[in-house]
Design brief:
The chain is of the alpha/beta class. It has 8 helices and 10 strands. Strand 6 and strand 7 form a beta hairpin.
Length: 271
């Protein structure tokens, strides 16, 4: 059966993570393509300098910028492939069998979706009131930030628009795709999988067998940075209010509904 491409992002210096992912692909029968991750020393100096100015609202360090640039490599690879969509994975993701249902090239179009978030961050999130299904997995519109960019399906059009957006290097990849202030949340049609077929290892209640992330040590902001641009902060809030108003006009029940925690598909049940 024809499937969408599966890309996984991996540094050459992390063969342990490459082996971890390839064991899972072998078990699931997935032919995945490795995307060479951007190293921290490859991040352009001008981009690092920009994140030290008042214009940057999130003040990213080299590791987070390298992560975002790595995802952009996968989006470019999708455009080069001619495929209608792709599954993008980071290299520390536990994958459940239900992910196979999302490799059908027709799924995003059938759902009318730009992005399918296949990961849970195990944080409370608001979801849309209307549900669709792919196999045994339910999908609802993502209506509040659900961080994490380790597992998602994006369409060819979403990849093209993402690469054209000036926001792509102004914030972390998870915020850009799935967070408040990002390009896609409440602007694109983003659906959350419930239960999620993917989860990062550090969100599981088990010891991490493949070690700490290479970007973890770069996430602490440098001291004595200048204050943020007040106009940009106000603009961010006004933009989000406008998006919430549009959500209320099409799904008021979602706006008023409770926050829920999305489970992982292979999580053990009660004994």
């Amino acid at each position: 059966m024809q499937t969408i491409p599966v890309y996984y992002i991996n540094l050459a210096s992390r063969p342990d993570r490459r082996a971890f992912m390839e064991r899972q692909f072998g078990r699931l029968g997935i032919a995945a393509e490795r995307i060479e991750a951007v190293r921290m020393d490859e991040v352009p100096r001008e981009l690092l300098d920009w994140h030290g100015t008042t214009h940057s609202l999130w003040r990213l360090a080299a590791g987070d910028l390298a992560c975002g640039l790595s995802h952009q490599r996968s989006w470019s690879r999708l455009l080069d492939s001619g495929a209608p969509a792709a599954l993008v994975l980071e290299d520390d993701v536990q994958i459940a069998t239900s992910v196979l249902d999302f490799l059908d090239p027709g799924v995003p179009a059938q759902l009318g979706a730009d992005l399918l978030k296949l990961e849970t961050f195990r944080s409370p999130v608001k979801l849309g009131s209307a549900a669709a299904r792919v196999g045994a997995t339910e999908l609802r519109e993502l209506c509040s930030s659900q961080m994490g960019g380790a597992a998602y399906v994006l369409t060819r059009d979403a990849a093209r628009r993402s690469l054209a957006s000036p926001l792509r290097n102004q914030m972390g990849i998870d915020r850009f795709l799935f967070g408040r202030g990002g390009y896609h949340l409440l602007r694109s049609r983003v659906l959350q999988a419930i239960p999620s077929p993917c989860i990062q290892l550090d969100k599981l209640d088990v010891a991490d067998s493949i070690g700490e992330s290479n970007i973890a040590t770069t996430r602490t902001p440098e001291p004595e940075r200048p204050g943020r641009d007040l106009g940009a902060v106000i603009g961010l809030h006004l933009d989000h209010v406008g998006r919430l108003a549009r959500l209320a006009s099409r799904d008021l029940a979602a706006l008023r509904g409770p926050h829920v925690v999305v489970p992982f598909a292979d999580a053990p049940g009660p004994t």
